[in-house]
Write the structure tokens for this entry.
Amino acid sequence: MNNEVGLLGIYSLEDTAYPGEMPTEKLVFIENAYYQLVQVGVTRIYQSLGADHRFDLVVRCLNTSTPEAGMYVIIDNKQYQIDVWYQENLILKIMRNLS
């Protein structure tokens, strides 16, 4: 079985303006990583909605240890923000689709 479903890009949001100028935030590429989609049951989805928390996608990263909450990933030309990073299982819980 092939676990490598696709390739995602990991980005951080940084201020690229020179000192003293108007802040300009831009996505800065960090690295690429293979990912595998993780199935989430209906019960877990409703529990998260009951706690007023929403996520669009859960993926397992296969060859990285970089991501942190607040960073961004691009999967299939769609931009998502990382909400939670479970390092022990290498699982990203992705909060929202930004594109």
Notes: The beta strands are 6-15, 25-37, 57-61, 72-75, 78-86, 91-97.
